[in-house]
Design goal:
The chain is α+β, with helices and mostly antiparallel strands. Strands 1-8-7-2-3-4 form a six-stranded mixed beta sheet, sandwiched between helices. Strands 5-6 form a two-stranded antiparallel sheet. The two termini are 31 Å apart. It is 43% helix and 16% strand. The model is unreliable at 3-12 (pLDDT under 50). A hairpin with a 4-residue loop joins β3 (142-149) and β4 (154-158).
Length: 268
């Protein structure tokens, strides 16, 4: 059997795809995820040097005084210098170089490199994904982030791929949990793209956020150093899905936490 076909079977075959999702998923609650952040497992010294080089370019005119403005600067610079393309599944340094060269990068790639830039700028950050309830295999999902703003004293949802924020009746940006609680309670919210150089595709906002079937999950225990090491050593000769499975078997894998819905019912 061709390797490409084998790769599809393990990664995209409906039964195995759902099995993988179940293995990685855990039920949680809002209180349980309150203290989690990406920075707990990922320290500045674990981030490749290339991120620090690009960080100097991002802030070559000086760093803003608030965490909110620092995060906006990072996402604006990345979005203006990355046009996107195919998904990468590469070590983080190679992924960043490939994305800046205009040769790829989907929302999950953008979220991952954004995590690392937040770490080296002392910003607490975490990554979220979405699926549908009930599960719809035709929905590809979306990745975005949340950062803790000491300026606002709360977590704030930010989409680095679209430079997107959400609000209710005030000018205080919403967290991920607040966005989905508001949607489920029919509380009006508004969204805003703060990038004047990019046109926001409205249908994507409705598909990935405002669709009532969407449910969010938090990506937990992702060690950038661990995945970089395994991908660097295995990427030339081993399919990515096998690398990820090996990391899972070694109990070093990330997992998904569902704070708002029972994932067992989603995938039943």
């Amino acid at each position: 059997m061709p390797l490409k076909k084998l790769h599809w079977i393990f990664k995209r075959h409906p039964f195995l795809y759902l099995t993988r999702f179940r293995l990685l998923s855990k039920n949680s609650d809002i209180e349980d995820i309150g203290s989690y952040d990406y920075n707990q497992l990922n320290k500045e010294e674990d981030i490749p040097d290339y991120f620090f080089e690009i960080n100097q370019e991002i802030f070559k005119e000086g760093k803003p005084k608030t965490d909110f403005l620092v995060v906006k600067r990072i996402t604006l610079w990345l979005r203006d210098h990355i046009k996107g393309g195919p998904g990468l599944s590469e070590p983080s340094e190679k992924a960043l170089k490939t994305m800046l060269a205009g040769k790829g990068g989907v929302c999950s790639d953008m979220s991952q490199i954004f995590n690392n830039f937040c770490v080296i700028n002392q910003i607490k950050v975490r990554e979220w994904g979405t699926t549908t309830a009930p599960f719809n295999r035709n929905y590809g999902g979306h990745s975005f982030n949340e950062f803790y703003s000491y300026e606002w004293g709360k977590w704030i949802l930010i989409d680095p791929s679209w430079n997107l924020l959400f609000y209710n009746g005030t000018n205080v940006p919403l967290s991920v949990i607040e966005v989905y609680q508001h949607l489920r309670q029919d509380v009006p919210i508004r969204y805003d793209s703060f990038n004047p150089n990019r046109e926001l595709v409205i249908k994507n906002v409705y598909k990935n956020y405002l669709n009532p079937s969407i449910t969010p999950f938090l990506v937990c225990d992702y060690s950038n150093k661990t995945y970089d090491t395994f991908l660097e050593r295995t990427r030339p000769f081993l399919p990515v899905f096998m690398t990820h499975f090996a990391i899972y078997l070694l109990n070093k894998s990330y997992h998904y936490r569902f704070p708002l819905d029972d994932y067992n019912k989603i995938f039943s």
